[in-house]
Amino acid sequence: MSSGRSVAVVAVTHAPAESLPAFLESLQSATDEQVDVVLAHQGPLSETVRAAVDDRRVRLVDATDCGYARAVNLGVYD
Fold first, then answer.
1. CB 58 within 8 A of CB 11
2. Are the C-beta atoms of 27 and 9 separated by less than 8 Å?
3. Tens-of-pLDDT digits for all 78 residues of the chain?
């Protein structure tokens, strides 16, 4: 049963291909809370990433040309 709170997740991606939809689904099935996801994306925009961003719970942050830690920080502070 949901408490009305949400869980925020930052994921750094580069070329997620088929793994991204399964990852997003696993997050939602892991909790009854709403899951909000920030994708700190470091690569070209693929159809998989575009499709994920169509979900209102997923936001995209451009993390091109930065390292992993900086990408995480960009996602956290978005």
1. no
2. yes
3. 557 788 999 999 998 888 999 999 999 899 999 999 999 999 888 899 999 999 889 999 999 989 999 999 999 998
**Burial label, 20 (beta-carbon count in 10 A; 0-12, 13-18, 19+):** buried
Contacts of 64 (CB under 8 A, 6+ apart): 41, 42, 43
